[in-house]
Design brief:
Elements: E1 3-7, E2 15-19, E3 24-27, H1 42-64, E4 68-80, E5 88-100, H2 104-118, H3 120-125, E6 130-139
Parallel strand pairs: 5-6
Antiparallel strand pairs: 1-2, 2-3, 4-5
Helix pairs in contact: 1-2
Pfam family, one: OsmC
Organism: Ideonella margarita
Protein name: OsmC family protein
């Protein structure tokens, strides 16, 4: 896995990354750091990656378990250290999982498996941050 990050010099603190799979991602800094707030911050991208990684796992685990999952949102709230390096110190990942007749125990097990076994992103972030999870189920049976 690889990527190239390039500073776009005439755009303040805008960085453009090209992933090994050929996708382009733009990042920017906060105005007080020389950025112009044109794109997500690099640290926000870490949260995006962690949320995507764990949501992917949860959906895949539920589908493989023949659960009727129709949606999965992960709402992440993060706290960072006050001094440099300002690593994440606390993360709460709130999973809103939609589907027909989903069992809270089955969804909780999928979330646990993601964090204990499969999600590389949360495994790395868990080295500096306390990670907590919560689950909300939305039954789409009547819909």
């Amino acid at each position: 896995m690889d990527c190239t990050v390039r500073w776009i010099a005439d755009a303040g603190m805008v960085m453009q990354a090209e992933t090994g799979s050929g996708h382009i991602v733009t990042m920017d800094g906060a105005p007080e750091g020389g950025g112009r707030n044109l794109a997500p911050r690099p640290m926000e991208m870490l949260l995006v990656g962690a949320g995507g990684c764990t949501a992917y796992d949860v959906v895949l685990i539920l589908k493989r378990g023949r659960q009727a999952v129709t949606g999965c949102d992960v709402q992440i709230k993060a706290e960072r250290a006050e001094t440099d390096p300002k690593v994440f110190t606390k993360l709460n990942m709130h999973f809103v999982v939609s589907g027909r007749g989903l069992s809270e125990a089955v969804v909780a097990r999928a979330v646990a498996l993601s964090h204990e076994k499969y999600c590389s992103a949360t495994a790395m972030l868990g080295r500096t941050a306390e990670i907590t999870t919560s689950i909300e189920l939305r039954d789409t049976t009547a819909a």
